[in-house]
Specification:
Helices cover about 5% and strands about 30% of the residues. It has about 450 residues and is mainly β. It binds calcium ion.
């Protein structure tokens, strides 16, 4: 495929340092010294494992950073897997109870380039205990990036024969691995069709967790939504800790009131039981499961919820909703809440929108955080950080703006946004402006998807 990463043609081992030349350490003259070194190292490892001299709390398994031991609190250190397939298990940092050496204060972020030349990427997802990063290419491909190797030549899934990506908001937009992917090989994809640009949620079946590519003929269609308009597709998919698949649809971009119409799918977040029924079942506790609207609808009143995120650790739902004229917004609610109306098109942020001079706030869930079009023009809802490299930011939600490179975080606590921080300068200093998505790698570290073709990892500067 043209436009791909120039690293793609190189063999995987090209990016890996070659092992030490054979014959040196184990050659006959050096053998006694080598054995002595091995014995000493073995004793040291045994000492570290048994005595744990540096243990001051829970330490992230697999962390390569000694500073990660500063994550101290034992609460929530479950090592559980969140619904994107990313490994969570970071701990809520509480410096007041820290019993380990203080980290050097965080000065900011650097961005590590993991891949370039990715054709219009719009998402990045990972699986536990798997170095691969699955990159959603809007044109209809799920590519694979391996740190150190860039974008691999062979895509994980190629749906270019059925994906319609005309207009900037259509295409392959989301993927979610089944919580039991390691055993059942199932994953779910949201794309818009060719022809028609209709929204489609489908299931694929891989040969298992080691599959490097998937047969597109394993597709099973779960849901297809007729789309007379050509914009506002949203497209995020994520499993909740309840095992249900959440699906975001925008309002379709026709300037109508579909987001308030409970008999249409547009402008809603849906909740599906993909393990029950055929092709799916409606969870019995969905708000309209017994009537009053489409049974799949979980929340409504969205314009274009470009990236929601379920934080499984706290069971919270974060929703970025792209504004029309003046305001971009982040909504945060408990995942257990359902049937909420997020206001569009009556409200844009907390402003009356339709009509502009009168609206009724009763029954509307207002955004927790908003910013004006003096600072951006299209929010990219992000993720809650649960990695280990930046323990002071565990539990903070990161989001971006596609137009300006705005990159910010806050921590949700008791209905408030606290610890608001602006990282925009760190990001734009590296020339990254168009952040289409924020993701996580398998260690829970932050990834930025630059729609100009880059996948970057956020690394702390101390
Ligand atoms: Ca809203």
């Amino acid at each position: 495929m043209s436009g791909r990463d120039p690293w793609e043609g190189q063999p995987p081992q090209r990016a890996q340092p070659a092992p030490a030349p054979a014959g040196g350490l184990f050659s006959r003259p050096n053998l006694p010294f080598t054995l002595a070194i091995i014995i000493c190292l073995g004793a040291l490892v045994a000492f570290l494992v048994i005595v744990k001299p540096f243990s001051g709390g829970d330490t992230e398994a697999g962390s390569t950073s000694t500073s990660s031991t500063a994550a101290t609190s034992s609460t929530d250190a479950t090592g559980s897997t969140d619904a994107t397939g990313s490994t969570t298990g970071g701990t809520q940092t509480d410096s007041s109870t820290s019993s380990v050496p203080e980290l050097t204060p965080l000065q900011g972020f650097d961005l590590e380039t993991l891949a370039t030349g990715i054709p219009f990427p719009v998402g990045a997802f990972s699986l536990p205990d798997d170095d691969r990063i699955f990159v959603v290419e809007r044109g209809g491909v799920i590519g694979v990036v391996v740190p150190g190797q860039g974008l691999l030549a062979t895509p994980f899934l190629d749906l270019t024969d059925r994906v319609g990506s005309g207009g900037i908001e259509n295409g392959l937009l989301g993927v979610a691995f089944h919580p039991d992917y390691a055993s059942n090989g199932k994953f779910y994809v949201y794309y818009t069709t060719n022809p028609g640009l209709d929204s489609r949620v489908v299931e694929f079946h891989s040969s298992g967790p080691d599959a490097t590519t998937v047969d597109p003929s394993t597709e099973r269609v779960l849901l297809e939504v007729d789309q007379p308009g050509i914009r506002h597709r949203a497209g995020m998919l994520q499993f909740g800790p309840d095992g249900y698949l959440y699906v975001a649809l925008g309002d379709g971009g026709l300037g109508d009131r579909h987001a308030q119409d409970l008999e249409t799918y547009q402008g809603s977040i849906l909740r599906l039981d993909v393990d029950g029924g055929d092709p799916y079942a409606i969870p019995s506790d969905n708000p309209f499961a017994s009537g009053g609207g489409l049974g799949e609808i979980y929340h409504y009143g969205f314009r274009n919820p470009w990236r929601f995120y379920i934080d499984a650790t706290e069971n919270m739902l974060y929703i970025g909703d792209v504004g029309q004229s003046d305001v971009e917004e982040v909504n945060v609610v408990a995942l257990s809440e359902s049937g909420l109306n997020f206001g569009w098109p009556d409200y844009e942020g907390e402003n009356c929108f339709t009509p502009v001079d009168s609206c009724d706030p009763s029954g509307i869930t207002m955004p927790l955080v908003a910013y004006g079009h003096d600072e951006g023009c299209s929010i990219t809802g992000g993720v809650v950080y649960r990695g280990s490299a930046m323990p002071e930011l565990v539990g903070h939600y990161f989001y971006a703006d596609w137009c300006t490179g705005l990159f910010r975080s806050f921590r949700y606590e008791d209905g408030q946004a606290t610890d608001e921080q602006d990282w925009t300068a760190d990001v734009t200093a590296d020339g990254v402006i168009q952040i289409a998505a924020v993701g996580t790698d398998s260690n829970g570290e932050l990834l930025l998807v630059d729609s100009n073709g880059q996948l970057l990892r956020v690394v702390p500067v101390r």
